[in-house]
Amino acid sequence: MTSNDPWAKALAEAESGQGREPGLWARCFAEADGDNGKAKAAYVKQRVMEMEGQESTSFQRREVGYCPSCNYELSMSADACPNCKALFGDDAWKPTRTPQGHPGNNKFTQSSEPAAEKSSGTWKWVVGVPVALVVAFLGFGAVVGGSPEAKARAADRDAIAYCKQQQEKRSLDATTARLTARVCEEMESAYKEKWRRNP
Predict the structure, then answer these.
(1) 103-144 pLDDT per residue, tens
(2) Distance (Å) of CA 7 to CA 3, 29, 83, 116
(3) Pair 19, 13: CB distance under 8 Å
């Protein structure tokens, strides 16, 4: 073995840690799931290929593509889209190198679930506003209707209504009917003066 032997140089780098490429070592260590022996073997193999001018297929840079269905960013060699579950194959769709449509409208998710469409808030306004108004009016009516002033107004209105019922009775003679009509009119005018509204 000579000192120019790429295998020997790569092994010496991997063993000593001196002159070792930190990025390559980290990648090899991670892909070996923390197994130091496997990481060294992968590092040596990659370094030899680099020294000989070859590119390892296992360490090739991932070509980025986009799903033609949902524009999810994925590998050009993917078999399916993890976002929308579209299947890719030789005789089917394939990932594209550029996103389809306007990039600002892409919906990317990190979950295994498809991207949810943003629902329009219009229906919330159409349903919510009338419901809120009805609740507000009922609440206002309960507050105002329960006040002592409202109760007094209601009692005065009921008295006027009773007076008009008595006036409409046909069993009253003419004098009593005129007297009842005059009393009802006086009650109505007193109500208008006191409450500033019609009964």
Answers:
(1) 545 555 555 555 555 566 787 888 888 888 888 888 877 776
(2) 10, 19, 43, 52
(3) yes
What is the domain partition of the chain in residue ranges? Answer: 6-59, 62-115, 144-199
Q: Output the pLDDT for position 56.
A: 47
Interatomic CA distance for residues 78 and 88, integer angstroms: 7
Burial classification of residue 81, based on how many CB atoms lie within 10 Å of its CB (0-12 exposed, 13-18 middle, 19 or more buried): buried
Residues in the chain: 199
68: alpha, beta or left? (left if phi > 0; alpha if psi -120 to 50): alpha
DSSP secondary-structure letter at 131?
Answer: H
In this structure, what are the phi and psi dihedrals at residue 81, rounded to the nearest 5 degrees? -85, 125
Distance (Å, whole) CA 68 – CA 97 = 10
Query: φ and ψ at 113, to 5 degrees?
Result: -90, 150
Cα distances (Å, whole numbers) of residue 3 to 6, 7, 10, 38: 8, 10, 11, 24
Give the Cα separation of 148 and 125 in Å (integer): 36
